[in-house]
C-alpha cells in the first residue's frame, strides 16, 4: 500500500555532517552560547549539523531541551537546510512531536533511531512504529534518515524493513546512517537502495571513499567535530575525482580519538583549544577524561600536527 501523503522535491542534504557535541556547564545545564559557536564553526568549515546524535549525548538530553536547542540554533541564524536533528526515542509520542517540530523549523531531514528499549521487536512492530510517526506528522516536507546503530540499540534496521518503508513512503524515508561499522552492510544499503534516491551515510571517514565510489551520500562522523575542514575537503575531492592526500591525515586523527572514550576526548580537546574548562563536562553516566589520558591525547594530536582552524578565535555569541 502506498501512502497518501504528497511529497515535493527539494535539495537533499549530502556531504559531511557532524553529530554535534553538546557543551554543558558545571551545573550540567546546556551552554547555549558555546553550542551556537561550535555549530557556527562547523558550518563555516563545510559541515552539516546532525545535532542530537549519539555523540551529542542526546540520550541524556530531555525532550524540552531538544526542542528549545533547535529553536535556539535557528534563532541564531544557523541554516536549517544544513540540519539533520536526531528525533528518535523509545516514546512514539515524543518522536512524533520532535519530528514535527524539526520539520516545522525547516530542517533538511531528521535522523531517527528505532525504539530501543524492548528487546527483539518484530519487523512488523518496527514498521508500525515508523509508519505511525510518518502518518502522525503527515507533512510533505518530512525526510527521514533511519539510524542503524545496533551495538547501542540492539534493534537492527534491516534491508527488508527499509524496503517496506520505502515502498510505503517513497521520498519520505530518504536515507540512513549506518553506524554498525560493518562495511558489507553499508555497501548492501547503497547498492540495494541508492539508485532509487535513498542516501546512505556511513559513520566513519574510513568508509567514505568506498561509499562515494558506489553512490554513498557522504558521512556523519564523530570526528567531524574535530576535523570538519579536512573531512569536507576530502568529500569534495572524492566526488570531483580529484587526487587528495587528506585521507591519511583524517584516519590518523580518527584513530587517536577512537583509542580513548570518544565523547569525553573530543570535549577535552575543545576545552583546551578554547581555554574553556567547562567544555570538558559530560553528563552522567559518562565521566570526563582523566588528565593523564588528556595530556597523552594532546601530545599524540600534536605529533600528527592536528589543528582546529579558527576554533580558538571564537567570538561571543549574541542570543536573540
How many DSSP H or I helices? 12
Query: Stretches where pLDDT falls below 50 for ≥5 residues?
Result: 1-9, 313-320
Per DSSP E runs of 2 or more residues, the count of β-strands stands at: 7
How many structural domains can be distinguished in the coordinates?
A: 1
- Give the N-terminus to C-terminus distance in angstroms: 46 Å
Helix content: 40-55%
Question: Which structural category do the helix and sheet elements fall into?
Answer: alpha/beta
Q: Kindly state the mean pLDDT as a whole number?
A: 93
- By CATH, the superfamily comes out as Aldolase class I
Architecture per CATH nomenclature, i.e. the level-2 architecture: Alpha-Beta Barrel
CATH topology: TIM Barrel
Over all CA atoms, what is the radius of gyration? 19 Å
DSSP strand content: 5-15%
Largest sheet: 4 strands, parallel
Apparent shape: globular
The CATH class label is Alpha Beta
In N-to-C order, the SSE pattern is EHEHHEHEHHEHEHEHHHH
Amino acid at each position: 500500500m502506498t501512502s497518501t501523503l504528497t511529497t515535493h522535491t527539494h535539495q537533499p542534504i549530502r556531504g559531511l555532517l557532524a553529530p554535534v557535541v553538546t557543551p554543558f556547564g558545571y551545573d550540567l545545564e546546556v551552554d547555549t552560547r558555546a553550542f551556537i559557536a561550535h555549530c557556527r564553526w562547523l558550518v563555516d568549515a563545510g559541515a552539516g549539523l546532525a545535532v542530537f546524535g549519539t555523540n551529542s549525548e542526546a540520550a541524556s538530553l530531555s525532550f524540552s531541551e531538544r526542542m528549545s536547542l533547535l529553536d535556539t540554533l535557528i534563532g541564531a541564524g544557523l541554516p536549517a537546510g544544513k540540519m539533520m536533528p536526531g528525533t528518535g526515542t523509545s516514546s512514539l509520542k515524543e518522536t512524533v512531536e520532535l519530528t514535527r517540530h524539526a520539520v516545522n523549523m525547516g530542517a533538511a531531514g531528521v535522523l531517527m533511531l528505532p525504539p530501543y528499549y524492548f528487546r527483539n521487536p518484530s519487523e512488523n512492530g518496527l514498521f508500525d512504529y515508523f509508519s505511525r510517526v510518518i502518518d502522525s506528522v503527515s507533512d510533505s516536507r518530512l525526510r527521514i534518515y533511519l539510524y542503524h546503530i545496533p551495538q547501542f540499540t540492539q534493534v537492527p534496521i534491516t534491508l527488508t524493513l527499509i524496503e517496506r518503508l520505502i515502498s510505503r513512503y517513497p521520498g519520505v524515508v530518504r536515507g540512513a546512517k549506518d553506524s554498525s561499522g560493518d562495511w558489507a552492510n553499508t555497501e548492501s544499503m547503497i547498492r540495494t537502495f541508492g539508485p532509487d534516491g535513498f542516501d546512505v551515510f556511513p559513520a566513519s571517514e574510513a568508509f567514505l571513499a568506498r561509499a562515494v565510489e558506489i553512490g554513498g551520500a557522504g558521512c556523519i562522523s564523530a570526528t567531524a567535530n574535530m576535523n570538519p575542514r579536512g573531512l569536507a575537503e576530502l568529500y569534495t575531492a572524492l566526488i570531483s575525482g580529484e587526487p587528495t592526500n587528506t585521507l591519511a591525515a583524517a584516519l590518523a586523527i580518527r584513530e587517536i580519538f577512537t583509542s580513548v572514550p570518544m565523547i569525553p576526548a573530543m570535549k577535552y580537546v575543545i576545552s583546551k583549544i578554547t581555554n574553556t574548562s567547562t567544555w570538558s563536562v559530560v553528563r552522567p553516566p559518562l565521566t570526563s577524561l582523566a588528565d593523564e589520558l588528556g595530556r597523552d591525547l594532546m601530545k599524540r594530536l600534536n605529533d600528527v600536527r592536528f589543528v582546529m582552524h579558527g576554533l580558538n578565535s571564537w567570538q561571543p555569541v549574541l542570543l536573540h
